[in-house]
Amino acid sequence: MIRRTQGRIDLMLEDHHHEAWHAPPLPKLKPFSGTGQLLGCPVPRLVIGSSDNAAEPSSISDPVIRPKTQEENGDSALPTSPVEVDSSQPVTQLQIRLTDGTK
C-alpha cells in the first residue's frame, strides 16, 4: 500500500467513543428459497393389481406402470442377511421429498 501511494497515507478518523454501539441489522434470509431441481422425470402413476382392474392411461404423459412380481423378477425370497455398515467410515443423511411436499 505504501508503494502505491509513494509513502504518503492520509487517514481521517471520527471520534464516536461517546456513542452507544449498535450492531448492524442482520440481513433477512430466506432459507430454501428459489426453485428446486428435479432428479430424473416426474414419477408416473402406479397401478397395483391385475390388468383387468387397471384403468387406461389418459395420455402419454400419464403412463400406467405395474410393478413386476417377485416371480417375474426371478426373486424367490427376500435377502436374509442384514446389511453390514462400517462405523469407521463417514456417514451422511439423505432426505427425500415428494412432489406434494411430504418426506
Written account of the structure:
- It contains 2 helices and 2 strands.
- It has helices spanning 2-5, 70-73; strands at 45-46, 64-65.
- It has a two-stranded parallel sheet with strand order 1-2.
- The longest helix is centred in the N-terminal third of the chain and has 4 residues, at 2-5.
Order of the strands making up the biggest sheet: 1-2
| Overall outline | elongated
Integer-rounded radius of gyration: 31 Å
Distance between the termini: 55 Å
Give a quick account of the main beta sheet: strands, pairing sense, barrel closure: 2 strands, parallel
Total of helices:
2
| Quaternary state of the chains | single chain
Q: Count the strands?
A: 2
Structural class: little secondary structure
Relative helix content: under 10%
Low-confidence stretches: none
Classify the beta-strand content into a percent band: under 5%
Overall pLDDT: 71
Blueprint (SSEs and pairs):
Elements: H1 2-5, E1 45-46, E2 64-65, H2 70-73
Parallel strand pairs: 1-2
Defining traits:
single chain; 103 residues; little secondary structure; two-stranded parallel sheet; 8% helix; elongated; NSFL1C_SEP_dom_sf
